[in-house]
Amino acid sequence: MDAAIPRELASRIAATAAGIEGVRSAVVCSAEGDVLGAARSEEPSKDAALASFVAVRAEALPVDGDLRGMGKQLAGSTFSHMSIVGSSGESALYHLAPGAYLSVRIAPGRSAMTAGPLAALARRVSTVPESTMRSPQP
Asked: Which of 14, 28, 81, 118 could form a disulfide with 36 if both were Cys (CB 3.0 to 4.6 A apart)?
């Protein structure tokens, strides 16, 4: 399967996200959990697997929060971003393009400070025409 975002671009996105003050690490992954790009992540494969698992399920949830459709793509269901807070810290997950996500780990107490720059980055990537994202075919 072709990656939704070329690895070179994904690496640049991850590096840009990791350069935002308060972001500890960043991983760009596919819906299948493949690492497309990573910056400062100790375990990018693990981060990508978790991000894709959460993102695919988030896309299945309807906007009103009704869980009856869990596991099924529902008409009108959209996912743009989410914050995750747990015992291991704070993370955020952003939809970049069909089948591509940005997952970031955030320093404690910095999620409010990172939210704007990360959302702006995700918006910029999502507005890039899909045809310019594809890798050239050999």
From this structure: 28
Spatial distance between the Cα atoms of 26 and 42, rounded to a whole number of angstroms: 10
pLDDT 10s digits, 92-120? 999 999 889 999 999 998 999 999 999 99
Going by C-alpha positions, the residue among 13, 57, 60, 53 that lies closest to residue 33 is 53
Three-state SS for 11-74 is HHHHHHHHCCCCEEEEEEEECCCCEEEEECCCCHHHHHHHHHHHHHHHHHCCCCCCHHHCCCCC
Question: What's the rounded mean pLDDT across residues 116-126?
Answer: 95
Q: Write out pLDDT tens, residues 51-72.
A: 999 988 887 765 555 555 555 5
